[in-house]
Amino acid sequence: MEVALESNGFFVGIEYLATFFCGMVGGLAAVRKGYDIFAILVTTWLTALGGGIIRDVLLGELPPVGVSDKGLVLTALLAAVTVAIAHPEINRLKWSMLSLDALALGLYAVNGTSKAMMYHVSGTTSIFLGMFTALGGGLIRDMLINEVPVVIRDKHWYAVPSAVGCVLTVLVCKGVNAGIVGFPAEVVLDVLIVLLVVGMRLVSEIFDIQLPGALIRHNTYLPGESKYLKRPVVHPDKDDKGERR
């Protein structure tokens, strides 16, 4: 059994492009930090292929594709060299890079989940492995350059689209295993899932749609207290009198 999107040369080409541009996003982050060329190479490689390495290690497929696939490794290294030379121009292509990063997010989510399902793990496990594939590279990148991971600091839809894509991919794979979905239909559905992930990611950025944070409350209600007694919430940076510590 093979991953549907990897069975067609066109989609393989898109995957290589996604690896290239995803790597450039990581390399650009290293350039902004003023790191040397070796650090740029490592950051680019891990951003582009780190998620797949995490997935393959957890699946027990060794060596992982991030080191065994010469084409993908060379693509990631080429991205590092490109960004080291053309970073002023690349830095100005904000929306182009955002779109290509969203494409990589969708492709990695679908491919990662499909590959996990090939190993006959549960649907829940496949969803997590798919999300590791999609988000792991960026997580490793931000940890390397000592920044709060974008999956944590970005309130726009980032992890959410990948989670939606992984869940839908599991449903498609289950349909294939049950004989309900044929191979051509699987390819079409996988493409639609990728487009959905890309669309959700871009819509959240264009219209500034953010996930809500914790519920803002000004009073606490504790068991045993009168329901009419309202106790003010003390700000963690202030004392009981409301003065800053």
Describe this structure in words.
This protein has 245 residues and is mainly alpha-helical. The chain has a two-stranded antiparallel sheet with strand order 1-2. 39% of the residues are buried. The mean pLDDT is 86.
Question: Layout of SSEs?
Answer:
Elements: H1 9-32, H2 37-59, H3 65-68, H4 70-91, H5 94-118, H6 123-144, H7 150-153, H8 159-177, H9 183-206, E1 219-220, E2 231-232
Antiparallel strand pairs: 1-2
| SS element count, helices | 9
Coarse morphology: globular
Subunit arrangement of the protein: single chain
Rg over CA atoms, rounded to whole Å, is 21 Å
Strand share of the residues? under 5%
Would you tell me the overall average pLDDT?
86
Residue stretches low in confidence (pLDDT < 50, at least 5 long) are: none
Helix content: 55-70%
Largest sheet: 2 strands, antiparallel
Strand order of the largest sheet: 1-2
Q: What is the terminal-to-terminal distance?
A: 62 Å
Q: Give the class from helix and strand content and strand pairing.
A: mainly alpha
By DSSP, the count of extended strands is 2
**N-to-C SSE string, H for helix and E for strand:** HHHHHHHHHEE
